[in-house]
Amino acid sequence: MIRYFVVLVFIFGVLNISYSQEIEPKEVAVEEEAKLSYGVVKSVDKEESKIVIGEYDYDKDDYVEVSYYVDSETNFIGVSSIDEISKDDTVDIEYVERDGRRVIKNINVAKEITEEK
Predict the structure, then answer these.
(1) What is the pTM of this model?
(2) Are 90 and 112 in contact (CB under 8 A)?
């Protein structure tokens, strides 16, 4: 009886090992994690599709200037393109980090309001 039990355990063990070796791992697409930022536009470089904003860095406990890049998939809210963004506009940005750059997915622009006298 013990012989049959040992033989069965051996057979199931071999089948399990051979079965597990046939399964290939599937590649899983990793979705980029979006991050949020907000601040005031310091400069706009239309040739490089770059927007520099002044924002508060909580780790440094200071205001810093950070560059963000616009691409063909950027969604503009409040303006239709980077051409309408100017210095001193307030922006809310949703971005992803790609190749060491902060690439804007969504940007909401609030134009500076000036009073006429």
Answers:
(1) 0.69
(2) yes
Q: How does DSSP assign 50-109, residue by residue? A: EEEEEEEETTTTEEEEEEEE--TTPEEESSSSGGG--TT-EEEEEEEEETTEEEEEEEEE
CA neighbor of 71 nearest in space, from 51, 41, 92, 88: 51
User: pLDDT by residue for the chain (117 residues), tens digit each?
Assistant: 666 555 555 555 555 554 444 556 566 556 678 999 999 999 999 999 999 999 998 899 999 999 999 999 999 999 999 999 999 999 999 999 999 999 999 999 998 666 565
Alpha carbon dihedral 40, 52, 76, 106, in 10-degree steps, equals -90
Q: Rounded distance, CA 42 to CA 54, Å?
A: 6
* CATH numbers and ranges of domains, the chain: 35-110 (2.40.50.320)
- Looking at residue 17, its amino acid is I
- Max CA separation in the chain (angstroms): 103
Task: Round to whole Å and give the CA distance between 37 and 14.
Answer: 55
